[in-house]
Amino acid sequence: KSTEKCERNRRIKQCVSEKLDLRLILDENSFAIINDIAQTTNGSIDYIFLTTIVTLCHWTMGASLKGAQAYNTPLILFSILCGGSSSKKSAPIRIVKEACEAVEALDGIPVNKSSINASVNMESLCCELEKQPNLLQLWDELAVFLGIFGSTRIDRAAYDRGLMCEFYSPTGIVRRQLVTRHNVMIKPCLNIIAAGHPKRTIECLSGAGSKCQDQKDQNEDGLFNRFIIAVAYKYRPNRETIEPNNKIPKLSHLFYLTKKLHHNTEEYVYNDEAKKFIKDVIYTYDMLSSDKSNEDDFLASCYQKSIERVERVSLALHILKICSRRLFNMVEDIESFGILDDRFKTICTEQELSEADHVIDYDTCFRASLLTKFYLNQTKMLAGYDPLTDNILVNKKHTMDVPENEVKHIKKYIENHPSDRILLSSLPANLKRKITKDQYFVIFREMELEGKGKIEETNNVTGPKGVVFVKKKKTDHQPSTSSTTNQQQASVVSTTNEQATIALTTNQQQINQTSSINNQETNEP
DNA sequence: GGAGAAGCGACTGAGCATGC
DNA sequence: GCATGCTCAGTCGCTTCTCC
Fold it and tell me: Is there a single domain that holds both residue A79 and residue A216?
C-alpha cells in the first residue's frame, strides 16, 4: 500500500514538474483575467484556467465548430481537477459557481431553473437535461461522480458510462431508456468539472475505480480519456493577500458577456491557415493512434481523443480571446469591474458577434495544439507512462528503493556478463539481493533507454514468454571483461559465450550440456 | 603475509504458475 | 498434459576483506 502511494506521488510530482506557462498559451487579456483570480484567491492558476474554460464552454450555449473534419464539433469539455486534499481543488469550483450564480441572478433566473447542476445520480442528471439542455455539472468529489453509474443496478453502469460518452459528442436527440421511464434529451450540452483525489483519478484512467467486478477493462470505453486533467500540488500560500484589481474584469463579467454574445446558436470556422494546421495536427494524432491501436488501447484512445480535443480547445481559446478583448475595451465605459450590475448588463446587450469573430486564426490553433499536447502528457504521466517514449514506467518506485550504488553494480554486472542475452528471472536467483524481478526490470528499462541494449521476449514457441535483455553488440572486443576474473576464466568466457547464454535460461537439458562443458573445461588444467 | 570469515555469483532442484 | 517460466532454498567455488 505504501509503495502504491509512493508511485502515486511520483506521478503527481512528474505532472507538476512539467510546467504549463499560460503566458504562452493565452493572449494578454485572457491571461490578465485568469492571473488576477489566481493571485487574489491564492489558488493554482492551472485549476483556475481549466475551470474557467470549461465554464466558458457552458456559457457559449451550445456553440459548435465547423471543424477540419466532416462533422461539426460541439464545444463541450469534461475536466478533472486532480490533487491532494490540500491542493485547494474546491476553491476554483466555488469561484466559477459563484460567478455563474451572479450571471443567472443578473438575468433574473430563479434558483430552481439554474443551469448549474449538482446531480448525484444519472436519473436526476438526465431529467435535468430533459428540462434544459444546457448544463454545467460540478462535482466536488470525483467519487460521487463515479457513484452515479449504475447506482440502481450494477449491470447498468456500462450503459450509463456509454451515455456519458455520448454526452461528450451528442447528436441531436439522446435517449435513455429504463424499464419504467425514459428520458429524451434534445441537443444536450453538458460540461463537467469534477475534483478528484490523485488515487481516484489514477484509478479512473487505469479503470480500477469502479465498483464492477471486472475492474481491469473498466476504462475500455475511454470515458476518462475524454477528461482534461489539471494536476496541482500543495504549495506554500503567500502570506500577504493581493487585493483584486477592479480594472481587470472578473469571471462573472466574462461569463455574462459570453452568454450575451451567444444568444443564438453560433457556429465557428477556421481560416485557411488554421484549417491546414489543424488538419496536420489531426493527421499526426491519427497516425500515433493507429500505431498504438493493436498494442495499447489506452494510448490509442488518448491519441484519438486528442483529435477532438485540439479542435474544442482551439475554439474555447478563441472565444476566451474575443470575449476578454471586448471586456478590456469596456474599461473606459466601466470604471470598476467590482460587481456585476445593470450598467454592465446594458452594455453587454448592445454587443454582437461580428463576422470576423467567427473565424479562428492560426495563432490560436497553434496555442491550442500546445495545450492539447500538455494535457495529453499529463494524462500519460498519471497513467504511469513516460510521455516521450510511451513506455510504461512499471513500478518505477522500486528503483527509488534500490540504493544507487546497487543499481550501478547491477548495471555493471549485466554489462560485463559474458552472455549477451540475460534472462530477467535469472537475476534474482543469481544476484542474491533483496530486489524483486520488477525492480530488475526497471533497471533493464533504464539500460534500454541508455542505449545499452534491448528488452525482448524469449522466442519459445509454447508456454509463457520470458523477458530477456539483449545487449548491444560491442564493435571492439574488450579483453578485460572483468578485472576480477583470472585468465583461465577469461578464456572460457571468450569461447563459451553462447553456452553461457543458454545456461542463463533454465532449460534443464541445455543447462546439463553447458555445465558438463564447463566442468570439462574447468577440470582440464 | 597468511588463515579464516564474509561476500558474491553460478548453478541445481523442487514446487508452483501459466499459456497453448 | 506439456513446455516453459518464476521463485525459493540450498550448495559450491572463487574473491575480497579482516584480523592476527
Answer: yes
- Does residue A463 reach within 7 angstroms of strand C, measured from its CB? yes
Q: What is the pLDDT of residues A38-87, one digit of tens each?
A: 989 888 899 999 999 999 999 999 999 998 888 899 999 999 999 887 77
Q: What is the tens place of the pLDDT at every residue in A364-379?
A: 999 999 999 999 999 9
Closest by Cα among A157, A161, A159, A160 to A212: A157
Q: How far is CA A60 from CA A57, A261, A264, A311, A452, in A?
A: 5, 8, 9, 15, 54
Count structural domains, chain A.
2
User: Given A359, A382, A405, which residue is the final one in a domain?
Assistant: A382
pLDDT digits (tens, 9 = 90+) for A156-193: 777 888 888 999 998 888 888 877 778 889 889 999 99
DSSP-derived 3-state class of residue A57:
helix
- Give the CA A423 to C1' C13 distance in Å: 23
Q: Which H/E stretch holds residue A301?
A: helix A297-329
A281 plus A415 within the same structural domain: no
pLDDT at A230: 94
Q: How confident is the model at residue A144 (pLDDT cuts 50, 70, 90)?
A: confident
Same domain, A30 and A178: yes
Q: What is the pTM of this model?
A: 0.71
Cell readout for A441 is 526490470
Give the separation between CA A469 and CA A212, rounded to whole angstroms.
37
- Where residue A464 sits, what CATH number does that domain have? 1.10.10.10
**Same-domain check for residues A40 and A162:** yes
Give how far the C-alpha of residue A264 lies from the chain's centroid of Cα atoms, to the nearest Å.
Answer: 33
Q: How far apart are the C-alpha atoms of A321 and A259, rounded to whole Å?
A: 15
Nucleotide nearest to A506 (CA to C1'): C5
Are A412 and A456 in contact, with CB atoms under 8 Å apart? Answer: no
Residue among A234, A205, A136 at smallest CA distance from A378: A205
Domain contains A390: no
Q: Where in the sequence is the domain holding A185, given as residue range(s)? A: 2-382
Angstrom distance, A504 CA to B8 C1' = 17
Residue A407 Cα to chain centre, angstroms: 31
Domain edge (last residue) among A347, A382, A417: A382
Strands (DSSP E) contained in A154-263 are 173-177, 182-186, 189-196, 227-231
Residue A238 and residue A190 share a domain = yes
Which residues, including other chains, have CB under 8 Å from residue A473's CB and lie 6 or more apart?
A: A420
Q: Is the CB of A486 under 7 A from strand C?
A: yes
For B10, nearest residue by CA–C1' is A430
Whether residue A165 is found in the same domain as residue A93: yes
Do A298 and A407 fall into the same domain? no
In this structure, are A377 and A412 located in the same domain? no
